[in-house]
Amino acid sequence: MATVLEEEPTNSTMWSLYNATEDLGSLQAEYKLLNDARLHSREPLACVWLTILVAGLFGNVAFLYVRARVSYMKTVTNCYLMNLGLADIMFLAINVPLETCDLFYDVASRFQTLYCVLSSGVTHLSNYTSMLTLALITMERYFAICKPFQAERLSSKSRARRVIAIAWAVALAFAVIFTISCFSKGGLGMNAITLILQTLPFIVSMSTITVLNVLIVGQLSNRNHAAMSALESSARAERLQVIRLLIVTELLFFICVFPYYLVDFIFGAQVLSNTCVEDTQKEFCMSLTQLYALMVSMKTSMYVNAAINPLIYNVMSSRYRQAFLFAFKCRKQPISESVMYASTQL
User: Fold this and answer.
1) What domains are defined for the chain?
2) Could you tell me which residues come within 8 angstroms of residue 131 by beta carbon, excluding any fewer than 6 positions away?
3) Helical spans, DSSP H, in 184-276
4) How far is Cα 302 from Cα 127, in angstroms, rounded to an integer?
5) pLDDT band at 226 (very low <50, low <70, confident <90, very high)
6) Are 209 and 134 in contact (CB under 8 A)?
7) Residue ranges of the G-protein coupled receptors family 1 profile domain (predicted)?
8) pLDDT beyond 90 at 310
């Protein structure tokens, strides 16, 4: 059973920053409201999060199985998507049970540092791995479509595996750096700077993805369709299907994850400028209850993002739908290999 909070909650770096600026005595009423909000929302939240967990694990594991089971699914693009699925599985399998336990047993208050390291560390590792993977997929598509001669040399499964390993190493380095704040005591300004800096990889990755997608769409639009053979037209249609699928995947990632980094940036900037620090009664400053509601919404949004990708593949790719049916013995034959004109297909 959750009890009235006797010490400030530390669900994230933002909690410690927020509470480090307040007199605990002046916040007793706010803590009471916060505790009431947690009590009334924990059962519905637990149901929603656990449903997302089951659906996300099933979908991502199914995609990994289909990719391993069906030969024509073993493309370079799917190698990257498989890595994206692994990052999503890790995020869901660790964070959802941890956050659900916190709803009922106040894990964040009882094991502050351990909770912060696990929750923040896994979130950063998964997010940075996902955004780097999406950037790598888009870059691979860019070379395949805009620079096909270079793509023949650069696009291979062995190279993709090496690049993926580097992406995990870089993501882990960022995660370790930005999780150090879990061990800091006091250091309000440094923690605020950390909140701002951890948004930079997201900005760089999403900017790179946007520019490359614009170049890819422009290249496909400028080609002479009338001069294409039937086989080339079919390959172009396959490429467009994959590009649309990737753009939707990247757009949903941006929509679901962007609020997390935006709030971190705004909150860090407010702390550095003393906004909402000396006077939390300003109209645009959030109460603890409002901050809690915002954090719960952001977490739920990221859980949805980690679970939804297999559904996107199924809805938008006829190749994946047919591969799924074949892998789970719902049809006797996979689709014809005659359509395997290029490695740009999903």
Assistant:
1) 35-339 (1.20.1070.10)
2) 201, 202, 205, 206, 253, 257
3) 188-197, 200-222, 230-272
4) 9
5) low
6) yes
7) 59-313
8) yes
How far apart, in whole angstroms, are the C-alpha atoms of residue 246 and residue 237?
14
| Closest listed residue to residue 74, CA positions, set 169, 148, 161, 149 | 161
How many CA atoms, within 13 angstroms, populate the side-chain half-sphere of residue 71?
6
CA distance 312 to 320: 10
Q: How far apart are the C-alpha atoms of 334 and 72, rounded to whole Å?
A: 9
Query: Residue 240 and residue 246: Cα distance in Å, rounded?
Result: 10
Q: What is the CA radius of gyration of the chain?
A: 23
Encoding tokens for residue 203? 């900005």
Structure tokens at 134: 């999406």
Strands (E), 58-128: none
**pLDDT at residue 26, rounded to an integer:** 52
- Contact present, 178 and 124 (Cβ < 8 Å): yes
Strands (E), 79-181: none
Query: Could you tell me if 249 and 309 are in contact, meaning their C-beta atoms sit under 8 angstroms apart?
Result: yes
For CA atoms 321, 324, 330, 333, the dihedral sign is positive
Rounded Cα distance, 80 and 130, in Å: 10
Name the nearest CA neighbour of 120 among 10, 256, 43. Answer: 10
* Nearest alpha-carbon partner for 33 in 292, 297, 300, 298: 292
For 50, 52, 108, 178, 295, the CA distances from 44, given in Å and listed in that order, are: 10, 12, 19, 31, 16
Q: Is the pLDDT of residue 84 over 70?
A: yes
Sign of the alpha-carbon torsion through 317, 236, 244, 69: positive
What is the percent of the chain where pLDDT is above 90? 39
Task: Let me know: does 72 contact 323? Beta carbons within 8 Å.
Answer: yes
| Average pLDDT of the chain, as a whole number | 81
138 and 248 Cβ atoms separated by less than 8 Å: no
